[in-house]
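ok so heres the complex, two chains, lmk if somethin looks off
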Amino acid sequence: MTIDVAFQGILGANSEIAAKLYFANKRIKCHAVPKFENIYQKVVRGHCEYGMVPIENSLAGSIHENYDLLIKNKVWICGEHIHHVEHHLLGTKTSSLKDIKTIVSHPQALLQCAGFLRSLKRAESHPYFDTAGSAKHVKDSGDKTLAAIASKEAAAAHGLKILKRGIEDNVENYTRFFVIAKNQPKRFPKGKYKTSIVFALKNIPGALHKSLSVFALRDIDLLKIESRPIHGSPWKYLFYLDYIGHIHDEASERALGHLQELTQTFRVLGSYQIGKQLKR
Amino acid sequence: MTIDVAFQGILGANSEIAAKLYFANKRIKCHAVPKFENIYQKVVRGHCEYGMVPIENSLAGSIHENYDLLIKNKVWICGEHIHHVEHHLLGTKTSSLKDIKTIVSHPQALLQCAGFLRSLKRAESHPYFDTAGSAKHVKDSGDKTLAAIASKEAAAAHGLKILKRGIEDNVENYTRFFVIAKNQPKRFPKGKYKTSIVFALKNIPGALHKSLSVFALRDIDLLKIESRPIHGSPWKYLFYLDYIGHIHDEASERALGHLQELTQTFRVLGSYQIGKQLKR
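and the predicted structre for the whole thing:
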């Protein structure tokens, strides 16, 4: 049986590679969609069982659009994948490094290769909407003076040559993905879990500190806190928390019960097995 | 004596209007710079006494580039200004609403006027690098079918007509600015203050909760917490905190001393009088 998985971008996008690695021992079909919100639509409408949602990059930080979309859509985070991002310089088959005059890629990728780009004195860099898209653009142009910064999979997908490998300034470059599904699974396999929740606090003194206390008092490790604005209530925030544990652990159940004494709105976004951080 | 103030953008930008309102009873000269980082350079090098730095919008959230730049540059936050953002549809002098076929503006402004844009069935919208820049673009084109979404000051600065006032979906649209200077002032005038700090925590259990406890234990009100990635240390964060109080208040001094028992790095970004939130 084939599993349908939605990702944002085009062939060779990091999201597609991440999906293939996450579901490595399953048969999957990847469905490319143009915008992040389309991933959620595909999953909510049942066109795809799963969606690959990039939530955070270890250099650029959180991807806030996806934090906002996670609460706009009724989905469940059922998995986590930590994807090691590598940047290569890609050109046409007849091109070589000394031919390159213009380099295109996503602004973040250009920023992450700033050292290498400075070393190419004669080449200009221009932003492009995504890394895999910039590879396709180079292929479509057939221009041997044009290069893209993208993955080796994008090189393969679009028939480009790798002119220079591993051009990033910092190799500790990981993107954390959430794997989303329409519903909570009926059974959770054994393993080490993380849980992600979102809440808005009541207007009580020291509310933020108290909300973290419900975890600290039970020795639950907090991994991340993220805040997003609440529309119509300037300088009030929705808080997103990740912690180690499964929602059905006793300590976790008690902490979440306690937390709801302090919150105006509260939702569990998912409990999922912790993703491994491996270099490729 | 004239005070030199740096802002990012072009004539009629919200940052320029904010500077004029913040320094309403002073004689100022505004210096437009193309990028946020240039504001800090102007201030650090002593070319401008002050810089206007947008740090957060009540609908779009934090402006992370400026959080990152605040720690890359040795500056002091000496003021806060809360700016009410209004969006108007601007066209050439001979244009009217029914002529408009294309609307340009910053993607956030387009998003914030989505309801109005949907009501204009025949008009397409296109992203532009900033709101005031989109106004200049309409003026330069002389095209009566083209309109921009920008402020009334941008209309005045670029000789455009307001075709439709107040086209935003949500009027609770404020941008919070930091006023930055090179150094801490010698004297702080009397008033109600906020303090902004940034720190990285030691690797100890429950460190985040403990770091908030140092404030809660002293009844100090936390206003905001923001996290940003630390490069080279995936999933470790710098935390930015805003709280009510002046760094030299006794409770605040004790809390910050206590906090430094828990932190690897720590810096006070500034103590500044609380900005008033007024509709224009």
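quick notes: The CA atoms of residues 79 and 97 of chain A lie 40 Å apart. thats all i got rn
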